[in-house]
Write a structure and sequence with these properties.
mainly alpha; 51% helix; 206 residues; 10 helices; three-stranded parallel β-sheet; D-Maltodextrin-Binding Protein, domain 2; 3 strands
Length: 206
Amino acid sequence: SIRDLKGKTVAVPALDSSRYVFLATMTAYVGLDLHKDIHFVMHPGPESIRLLSEGKIDAYLGFPPEPQEMREQQIGHVVISSTVDRPWSQYFCCMLAGEREFVRTHPVATKRALRAILKAADFCASEPEQSAQFLVQQGYTKRYGHALQVMKAIPYGWREYSAEDTLRFYALRLHEVGMLKSTPQKLLAQGTDWRFFNELKHELKT
């Protein structure tokens, strides 16, 4: 479990990286002190994987296709998977952010962009094989098998997730570790706009 990381050495690309922030939410949730309980070292992804295989670090947060590659090479073991382990699997991990003035002055373009992204998510869910092939063709990964594993593992349940609950959950975790000055309530009130998303939920029915 995440609590097992207490006193361990964990690699991240940088202390302002998304991986470090994600780990911060996880450690806060189980009551670990990010600054006292874990020793962070900074290394790029490939270097971190090598160090883990050599036993020179204790843990590394991998993003696809890294976990698939590490499993194939029998490097390490899974401590937690955000796609299947609660509470992380109950919240989405990615979101679309827009510059406030652009969204205000270009609502049609904003909604069109969001529609395209949500339709792409639906395509990944309904056509995982074709989506995996596209990832290989675009150079995101060299291995079709790894890409297909990722496509089939991600739930793509954007209609079922509560965007507001997710943002509140992560904002609270980041507020607890001092990474976010605003309260979750203030962030939701001033930094979110669900109009387009809620409209598209009805327009893009399965």
